[in-house]
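Fold it.
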Amino acid sequence: MIDIKNVSFKYENSKEKNSLTNINLEIKKGEVVILCGESGCGKTTLTRIINGLIPNYYSGDLIGKIKIKNKDIKELKLYEIARYVGSVFQNPRSQFYCMNTSSELAFACENQGLEIEDIQKRIKFSASNLDIQDLLNRNIFNLSGGQKQKIACACVDTYSPEIIVLDEPSSNLDSKGTNMLGQIISKWKSQGKTIIISEHRLYYLKDIADKMVFMKEGKIEKVFSMNEANNLDKNEFLSFGLRPLNLFEKSYRLTKKYDKKEDTMILSKFNYDYKGQNKALEIDSLILPKNNIIGIIGSNGAGKSTFAKCICGLNKKFKGQIILNGNVYNNKDFLKNSYMVMQDVNHQLFTESVMDEVLLSMNDNDDRKAFDILDSLNLLSVKDSHPMSLSGGQKQRVAIASAVASKRNIIIFDEPTSGLDLKHMNQVAKILNELKNMNKTIIIISHDLELILKTCDFIVHLDKGKINDFYHLDDKKVQNLIDCFEFII
């Protein structure tokens, strides 16, 4: 089905070495293949070669042979490749063309010239197949990151190509959504589709995939059958820098004993609704301990990102207050005292280089401090690169570097490890704990159980915009958290 021989690629105007070097890979019809490895190892570049974005959209030096269904991909137009290959990108927003979700589901089918009745039947079937009936006829811009990801998957399901390429498809999904994604991939496999998945979260694919392709520095280092991967010793598996195949075999740090006398911040009248919809947030009062790491969990659409935007003062019509040391702060005050690393970091990368991006967040430019921050996040090698030229995981770390440099007292991270490998997730966890030791109040919105167990002192569980639960994450509550991830989220 897919035959890649002696392929190397370097992006145009790139100062770095080849993104891919001497890639040889054969993928048979009906196989499910995982591309894995650290951020920046070449996984996304390889998916772009398979779906034709290289060289049709991303230009550069491409050598070697790439065939899909015995057709040379270099001789096919992008619209011709689209008949065979469907894609779900790491940032689903970058592949949307319509404002309405139902129109988006119809878009690819319309481009293929299908009849209206056929398109309507396909949309209805895919909505049921992916359990997204409640997302039909919605404004895409009002959806959460996870909901957008579901729509992106449904778009591919609707026009049903033979080959499906997914780049970090679970990065914005909660556990329920991730498990559902696994079910969808399993259905696609049963239909004989060929599926290539670039992924850091591996646990949901362990019983679905046929093989894992481990990449490092633009090369294929090792190809495992899933039977071989499942039989790897845990330490051997971690030595590759990969996240574990079993989600619930994780160590965690014990948090300090909760002192109820410690300083707190009071969130008052945290109520917010989007025009024409039910209330997105209904929290009359919530008391949070200062200078701790607080995890915000809940299903996609539970109100987590709205909660974060309200704390940061990004929702202009928000009327809530934060009370600190007896002082009342309003929306404008939030902007001055807080910093947010967004779920879609493309919204907050503004400068021409990574170094300038970090310096932009500082009140007084300090090159030495900026170097240290970049070094702590493995970003020194790309300090002169344009932020938008980086991989998704690298962009995420640039945004985190800017947050560290800002010196704000309240820092909110919305899915800070989305698209990050094990190594860089651990680096982020280390930095979050260091920020807490600097007397920062850290709020983490995350579906990443590993990160939460490594960092959080308290948990706020949101459900439909309301507080479902709030507790100190000590050793007695860890199972409670795992149960939330396994059965509720």
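The first helix runs from residue 43 to 50.
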